[in-house]
């Protein structure tokens, strides 16, 4: 590519007043002309923050990306962008996913950027960065933050998230003392990096690797491994080549790419959050992807990764076993991937997988000996979820997958917290726990409340799973017979708003059905009496969000971002 063909040339390369000004300001940045003029400007979008433990190493990694960019003849510029810390940001970073997506798109659009390296990995960060980058449609390469090392406590391996829930239930059941709890606090998350179970973070970074938006093998490299430093530098070198060859995201993101992403999520036994994020990402690519695509893929793709919470191992084991290339080679061998599509290396997926190996058949199973023949995900419909709901049934107790029980209804999370452990709550292990007002608008932000806690009285009796139904999401590290993403949500008058205590609810996963066993006339009477709740936010970002957010089955993007239409390039002069 000639320097005058670069997008940044329009800022720096001409003879007009603005070019003169931009060059003068580059001198102010401390740069000599020969250091940057005519070179592709690579934006390094960094989601580092002092409050984001999953990204705490990304300052250093940005330097390593920059090293690679310089080596390949590019000009690296770091841009700090919003940090979405799954742990600390409330009510949930999901409220802000689209904000980071907008920031990503607009940074790339408004500055003299030729290509971008995107640094992140904690849950919503990955879809946010890629939604924005897909809309901007420049060459872009993702560098996943990488999972943390295995957790450890008294000789036991701990999974972040998953074991937090498990040990907290033990605590509530009176089985753990203060000392044990303090030790667990030090052992659950013991290095920088994203959750090392197959939570939303690793599900999304692995899906994005399968899509061909990272260098091969990137997603499973532990955050603190020296290989992660080398990945960063190699990504810096590669993005310069991607700019030279004009390999924009839209050349990688085809309909087949998204189907392969769904296939990968299912084979990983991945997080249900991926359903929402991949639908939203596909929307930015102008590719229709819906809930039924997930159900169709999940019926034919086996779960091959034996990683918690659906399986036994952790991401560090998955890395040693061959990582995403190992998994993809198994899927490709079973004819389940589109191997002729181009990936970020400029080669085809099939070419990249030709040398991929699996080193441990326990962790990455052969297709003939899967963790589960199906069961990664199922999409349910019925009069309780006319626009669909999702369940990850490998993470549930099998006897609950066909179940009818009386509803115990909670109106929002505060009500749930207030009453769930009340000894007088009329609940048995056959009850169906229902949480409403926890959807995209009602939550707001669709918080991860979907794994409703088991009432303490039942926990003490040894009950560890019950059918739960909500319009919320669930953490990828959670488990249980939790029906999630019920659409439309109760806040907008979905049928969930009409459920009353004692109503029979039937979950039938084999039939893909979720039914409220109340007759239509009674439901119509209840609907006539229903009044919409007050707005959650009347000003600020929350009000913008409420005016434009779509429901879960459409990916919870903003309606004005998920559509085609004129959005002109700025004229820098
Ligand atoms: Fe960041 Fe789990 S909290 S990935
Ligand atoms: Mg999570």
From TrEMBL:
What Pfam family is a match, any one? ILV_EDD_C
- Keywords for this protein: 2Fe-2S, Amino-acid biosynthesis, Branched-chain amino acid biosynthesis, Iron, Iron-sulfur, Lyase, Metal-binding
Q: Quick check: keyword Lyase in the entry?
A: yes
Which InterPro entries does the entry link to? Dihydro-acid_dehy_C (IPR042096), DiOHA_6PGluconate_deHydtase_CS (IPR020558), ILV_EDD_C (IPR056740), ILV_EDD_N (IPR000581), IlvD/EDD_N (IPR037237), Sugar_Degrad_Dehydratases (IPR052352)
Q: Start and end of every Dihydroxy-acid/6-phosphogluconate dehydratase C-terminal domain?
A: 362-556
What Gene3D superfamilies does the annotation carry?
Answer: IlvD/EDD C-terminal domain-like (3.50.30.80)
Dihydroxy-acid/6-phosphogluconate dehydratase N-terminal domain location? 39-351
- Report if keyword Metal-binding is assigned: yes
Q: Which GO terms describe its molecular function?
A: dihydroxy-acid dehydratase activity
Which of the seven top EC classes does this enzyme belong to? lyase
State the EC number(s): 4.2.1.9
Q: Which family does it belong to?
A: Belongs to the IlvD/Edd family.
User: Which PANTHER family has this protein been placed in?
Assistant: DIHYDROXY-ACID DEHYDRATASE, HYPOTHETICAL DIHYDROXYACID DEHYDRATASE (EUROFUNG)-RELATED
Report what the protein is called. Answer: L-arabinonate dehydratase
Source organism per entry reads Actinokineospora soli
Q: What is the lineage of its organism?
A: Bacteria, Bacillati, Actinomycetota, Actinomycetes, Pseudonocardiales
Q: Identify the gene encoding this protein.
A: araD
